[in-house]
Amino acid sequence: MTTYGIRDVIGPFMVGPSSSHTAGALRIALMTRRLLGAEPVEAVFKLYGSFAHTYHGHGTDRALVAGLLGLAPDDLRVRDSFQLAKEAGLAFSFHPDDKTQTPHPNTVDIRVKDASGAVTEIRGESIGGGAAQITAINGVDVLLTGQYHSLVVKQKDVRGVLAFIAACVAEMEVNIATTKLFRERKGDVAYTVMETDDPIPPAIGQMLAANPKILQVRIVPSDRSAESAAPISEQEALEEGLAPTGFGADLSAEEASLLFEAVDFKNGAQLLSFAEKEHLALSDAICRRERCLLASLGIAVDDTHRYLGEALQVMKASATGPLTHPKKSMGGLIGGEAQKLWQQMQKGDGFGDSLQTRAVMYAQAVLETNASMGRIVAAPTAGSAGVVPAVLMALQDVYHFTDEQLARGLANAGAIGMLIMENASVSGAEGGCQAEVGSASAMAASAAVELMGGTPAQCLEAAAIAIAGLLGLVCDPIGGLVEAPCQKRNATGAANALAAAQLALAGIDSYVGFDETVTAMYAVGRSLPFELRESALGGLAATPTACQLCGACAPGAQPCN
């Protein structure tokens, strides 16, 4: 079972428009690059399922090429990856296959020839929220997630090899997190995937290569090491004056693991019980959990507050840039809406509620940044990235909260998002737009309540009210693009969050509590037909006007729906 942290909810930092189709695709290709023995010179991408339908409009094609070039998910050069590939001598082609059924809808096969002449074949899946995994290497089923530092060893499947690998790793004083052996047939070629808490020294490769039974060694650094605000080492922290202080500052990994069991909240009831018992705000309670989680993984320094501060600055840039410098989206459906709202507000036109007007404006702006392949923070996804920053920034404008207070609001939002990810889904392909914008709205509502002085119980009430207000919301992107109606749905999510927060602060409860509401949302999402879960085959996407805007069908062809 996946153990989520704040970075999994407030993050990743990425170039839009889609966490699963852009950031996740890039990570598949980036892990592929790290499995090569030399620079890639030729790549063939075979795309399945949702990837096959929407790879161009989502920037999946650019992201895959960018990953092979070694770019990070938040590198603005992702949108220029085709030109960069040409300059680097990397030839590539794309082959969509929307007929073959694969276990996951966001699947790609990558066949890469490197400068040494070697050919490597990889199958990867983008599993949501920017996360990805490699599920096959050269025809052998494996599982490589990129969350840990990983040692990938191709070997002869004979006795003693695995023990030799483990001994070499132990000799270099690298702590092993997990070890798995994958093979097609006994006695044939096998792969060992060893995940470690510590960075893997290159010297291990030389030690392993001395054994004739080992055919190939690849070191795959953690995905988090490529992020702009990854957990930092103890030495780096000391150099920056960030020595750990406060709760759990001197925890060992073993002590942290034991403490983590007590703060690994599985539902809202457990989180609320802990917060009330310890007299903590939800933001403080979830930061205690994060401290224990990081320490249990061997990360000596908890830089969560620094991470949230950096996330806030990226959010602010994505929410303000389009107000004065609008950009057309990749699919051409949106661009300039936020500036129109900004100009309207400057003139004093429109409604008088400055808080809601600002929230709607900022939400529109973030989605414009996202859809034009600008840098955003998925919160919890790229398609819903506008809701949380919109509410926080509007509250700051009107009530003058500090950035430090907004960062605490982000931690609170992360707690709500984490519980939803644990018990339901934040994926539009799995649960409709209620899972994306609905979850983001719940996160923003809870954060708003804490900022306005509400109790932890009121935070959870607000989150439940927000989910209930958008229950059943379908995911029907026109042309399969994260543009329309996604942009306006983010504005709706922000306004809904403010309404939910106001109700909760007034002492109005949700009647159905947070945990039951999350369960209901998950059940509703699973009951939605495929056409209403990010397929672009139903809802507004299936209307005649939307089909004309999409333009995917050839003249005279039958519409997709």
TrEMBL record:
Claim: Disulfide bond is one of the keywords in the record = no
Q: Where is the ACT domain?
A: 150-225
- Which co-factor is required? [4Fe-4S] cluster
Give the reaction(s) catalysed. Answer: L-serine = pyruvate + NH4(+)
A Gene Ontology BP annotation from the UniProt entry: gluconeogenesis
Protein known as: L-serine dehydratase
Keyword match 4Fe-4S:
yes
